[in-house]
Design a protein that fits this description.
The complex is a heterodimer of chains A (about 160) and B (about 350).
Chain A (H helix, E strand, L loop, with lengths): L2 H12 L2 E6 L5 H9 L12 E2 L8 E5 L4 H13 L5 E5 L2 H4 L21 E3 L6 H17 L13
Parallel strand pairs in A: 1-2, 1-3, 3-4, 4-5
Chain B lengths: L1 E6 L11 E7 L2 E8 L7 H5 L4 H9 L6 H16 L5 H29 L3 H22 L8 E2 L2 E2 L6 H25 L1 H7 L7 H7 L3 H6 L6 H4 L5 H4 L11 H24 L18 E9 L2 E9 L5 E7 L1 H5 L2 H6 L7 H7 L4 H5 L1
Antiparallel strand pairs in B: 1-2, 2-3, 4-5, 6-7, 7-8
Helix pairs in contact in B: 2-3, 3-4, 4-5, 4-12, 4-15, 5-6, 6-12
Classes of the chains: A alpha/beta (about 160), B alpha+beta (about 350).
The structure holds iron/sulfur cluster (SF4).
Amino acid sequence: MGLFSSILKLSRRRSPWVYVLNAGSCNGCDIEIGSLLSPRYDMEQIGALRQGSPKHADILLITGPLTLRSADAVRSIYAQIPEPKAVVAVGSCPATGNVFAGSPTVEDGVLHVVPVDVFVPGCPPRPQAILAGVQEAAHLLAEGKTGRWHKEKHHE
Amino acid sequence: MPFRIPIGPYHPALEEPYKLSIQSRGEIVEDVTIEVGFVHRGIELLAQRRNYIQDLVLVERVCGICSNIHTLTFCMAAEEIAGMQVPDRARFIRTIMAELERLHSHLLWAGIGSEDIGFQTMFMEIYALREQVMDVLEAISGNRVNYAMNCIGGVNRDITDPEGVLRAVRSIREGIQKTVIPIFTQNRTILGRTRGVGILTRDEAVTYGVVGPIARASGLAIDVRQDFPYAAYEDLGFQIVTQDSCDVTARVVVRALEMLESCRLIEKALLELPGGPIRPSELVTVVPPGETMMRVEAPRGEVVYYLKSDGSDTPARVKIRTPSDLNLPAIRAMARGQALGDMAIIQASVDPCCSCTDR
Ligand code: SF4
């Protein structure tokens, strides 16, 4: 492995930049991600920074069960993140739809639209768990093992 | 030349997805249009398909910030239809939870507002303080966000250590008195960015029908806790906070002083906590036929629930009207004639909650 690629690998693991995307969440998960920026949990200790633009991000944090109106935005924002990229699904909503499953305006999880690398279960998960999820995603990025779970959309 | 700037639905200045289209001439905002609906999950429909026990879990997730208020209002509506009396201890615990939630919500807002005007240090200070509130909430309910405290007829968990909670709340009050209030009322950065910005006159406030801290910052003394006291507010003697300057400063100050009032209410409730049961011995699963409206003061203003029961274990209709529904359109009145750079704090001063609005 060349020097350049080992530096690249190290920096992917040590400074993952994240972009937070609300795909119809109840806010619960979002405020716990907000707490991650606070002095107690301090996401920056693992080098993670929250970014305002998906074009600067390595890791996409998705919350919410994917409402119909947010589906296109999720697709487009995922496409804007440069490769390699990892997706962390925060909370039970993006995994299954959670309590909103079965609603006609909800897609029951984000797997139809984007591949997910790390699921962080909980409604909402504790900030420590989200932090661990971000760290795991950073490791996957460094190892080049992203895109673990993907489901093709069956109907249509 | 006028031009249009779309902000959102996904934008770093917005906490949640909604769309602001700003029409401006140079640096001056001429008009804004607001589009919501990006987080519509169809909760009202789902609530009519599930039973009361499942609905409590569902309505708690209308909004993660004011989750407790939604179950409280839902339970109060069901209790009213059923003609149930809530035990005294449960009434007090409900009040304590509601006020703790207001504390955490106002602190969250204060942190985000500080960040929007670029005051990072204040954001960190406030979030550190907010963690203390979260600890109290967790100590009482076992959860940090969705507390699952209310059940029809009472509350699910008791406060077993009132002294410990009292100590924690006192230290939170000191934090608010020492850092939050002086900085929000005297700091030049904050005042420079908020004074005279985003005016919503008293008349406009009435026209738009705003509620909660926004209305109280425009000189309207409306608060459900005072006008139609529920839970234990009558026993505790609630004091309303209003301001007359109608700008963002007024909204900041109203919320800051409300936090002190919340601390006072919690401390008094803990000292006077009556004994006795916290809920009926039998789980309530069926509500007799009837309909009712119930309102409660959430951190952002008045929440209204309409509940109709046909006597089964599933509600016939649940209608939820949340405060942000009324407060969001008022951004329009606040933004006209303002500088483009102030739009971030103007929209944040409303404390918009889209997951509530869209449901
Ligand atoms: S997982 Fe729970 S807390 Fe998170 S967005 Fe979904 S309902 Fe809200």
